[in-house]
Specification:
This protein is α+β, with helices and mostly antiparallel strands and 85 residues long. Helices cover 34% and strands 27% of the residues.
């Protein structure tokens, strides 16, 4: 299992469209991927789960991946969250 703290740098935060793209990025991987913020932990491959987090630009999250492609999953998610779209 790989766990990493990340900062959301997408200007609009994670609203509907960025969440849809985030879920697409996470869904490319076999690994189980979870996002934690404050006391909530959700499946990164679930649009509805991700929407419940209400994440804004500048907020920190902890992303964990567990599986054969966990390293690649973490790198791809970090790359997406750090984009300044």
């Amino acid at each position: 299992m790989v766990t990493k703290n990340m900062t959301i740098e997408i200007k609009t935060g994670l609203e509907a469209r960025p969440i849809a793209v985030f879920v697409q990025v996470a869904s490319q991987f076999e690994s189980s991927i979870y996002v934690e913020h404050e006391s909530k932990k959700v499946n990164a491959k679930s649009i509805m789960g991700m929407m419940t987090l209400g994440l804004n630009a500048g907020e920190n999250v902890t992303v964990s991946a567990d599986g054969n492609d966990e390293e690649e999953a973490i790198k791809s998610i970090e790359k997406y969250l750090s984009s300044k779209e």
